[in-house]
Amino acid sequence: MTTVANDLFALVMQDLDDANAIRTPDAALFLRHATRAQQWVSLRYRLLRETFPLSLYTNTPVYALSATHPRLVMVTHMTLSNGTPLWPIPLISLRYKDTAWFATTGATATLFYRAGWRYVGIYPVPSANAAATLTGVLLPATLTDMSSPLQIPDSYAPRLTLVTAGLLLLSRERRYTEGLARIATGLGLRAPAQQSPVAQKEGVGVSG
Amino acid sequence: MSQASVIEEAQDLLLNLGDPEFVSLAYGDAVRQLAHRCPVFSEIQMVPTAWAVGQWTDATQTFTDDTTDAQSTATNDVLLCSTIDNDGHLLGAYGMFERVVYTISTTDGGLGTYEFTYWNGADWSALSLLSTPSFGSSGTQTLAFVAPEDWRQGAPTGVTFPVDFDAHLFWIRVRATTAPGGFTSQDQLESLSQAMFLTVPPKGNNQGDMNQAAGLARVPLAASYFQIPSATQLSLQTAIYPLPDSLVHLLTVLYYPNELEPVPVAEGLDLLTPTWRTTTGTPTRFTQDLEPFPRFRLSPIPTAIGTRGIPVFTGTSGATVGTNNLVLFTLQVPLEEDHPPWFEGLVSYAMAAREARRLGETQDLALAGALEQLVDGLVGMLHGLWAEDGIELVGPYVSPLRR
Prior knowledge:
The structure holds 2 protein chains of 2 kinds. By secondary structure, chain A is an alpha+beta fold. Chain A has a domain of 90 residues. Helices cover 34% and strands 23% of the residues of chain A. Chain A has a 7-stranded mixed β-sheet with strand order 1-9-3-4-6-7-2, with no helix packed on it. A two-stranded parallel sheet of chain A has the order 5-8. The C terminus of chain A is likely disordered. Chain B is of the alpha+beta class. Chain B folds into 3 domains: 81 residues, no CATH class; 230 residues, no CATH class; 40 residues, no CATH class. The C terminus of chain B is likely disordered. Classes of the chains: A alpha+beta, B alpha+beta. Chains A and B meet through helix 2, strand 3, helix 4 and helix 5 of A and helix 1, strand 1, strand 15, strand 16 and strand 20 of B.
């Protein structure tokens, strides 16, 4: 069964134990917080990944991804079209391998590096056009209406519920400690002020 | 999303009690602060090392490009001023230079008086010289100065440049306040030049021919009086390059094709190249230690002539390839159109926190504290995400020897 935003709304009201306690004047406001919550939960547990093709061009060492893949958060893997995996290397470590790493060309790339989240680079620089496959962590899309399907697995619905309820408590009800505790629990972060009562109740551990 | 939707989200968090004007004002600060806390907004840019020189005509405030002559070895083809007072030459580069080496082929006979100024963004301001070139002596002459802190890159106001000339450079102006001829106008020059020439018969003619115009020749009374200093070649030693105001961190610099080694001054350049302030050659290192605002310095100082063009690393076939380019990898504060959705979420939380903390009717310190804790937690979470998969959150370079 596909869980949609409306299902999440029911779960959140259930979690708060009083549907009338939250001043949620309209669906748009709920969707805004639910969208954020889904983004944070998805990023925290890297729930969405995307694999997409990338054309490599002669003498072109770096490729901008932000324009073509705006929801991509970071590249995690890269493979040439023949199945050869490229190994990630920190940008600032390339100099120890080859000071001319931005210019050295080769028939087969062996390494890839990331310059922030926007660019991915290849070493050695392709000496001929080629194709590669990228895999990266993706941000869920915005929930546009109450029938929008959630993009993260159903098994993460409890955590998503906690984070959404936490954001609503914090922003709408001004129940800050309670809201932050729910968010921390949902994201598996250390509770900021005190051990989350929700975590205590559910026995969910918190990590640093 | 857009700035408007981020502001709307922040207002939502404030139950629409925030002052719209102040919430909007918080946008820029929130973006800048979060860009420093989430240093993943990278830019790769090419900076040409090209430079330009040309004649300065003061009366018309005109620059006449003579770069090709200045970079060639042809003798005597770069005029450094004219016989009109306040004419001279302009020198510009994409970086800040502290030394200009002239190869003087024709001297001014020691008759000129010169003024050395730089463009500070509003006016020409006097340079503090360390070494003043003598255009009265032939051979190598050096102009040396310390790059002024208020030296600004850009086309000087009111100056006419050739069409299609990229004047967005760091400029200095060398003017002969007293020209070698000492004339203040073209008319005066022409009338004086008539007076200063003696009409003599060609050799072999007798005295009687003196009145025969056809046989007469005009020779200057004192050749040096009209001597315009000129050079065979100039060399601009451009060592310092600016970085964008939106800079968060300079990741690395390449003097294409080679990456430069980042070094501090005290435990780096001073030990490795004690004469780094004047040593020239192909750059192998860069340092940011000395600079009061975002810029970096190359060492050794390049003397190779850079050219403009399409960088080879773009893979653009058939394009004119620029040479001796610098390639900068930087982390910057992102432009609004480059904000990813997760960043906009953080910005809206931070803006709401700032407005909630502000003194006034909307002050809600508890809300501000809660939102700040939320942002702290999310930023920490993102750092974990990036670090776990090997994306480096690069801080300032630390030499392996200093770790």
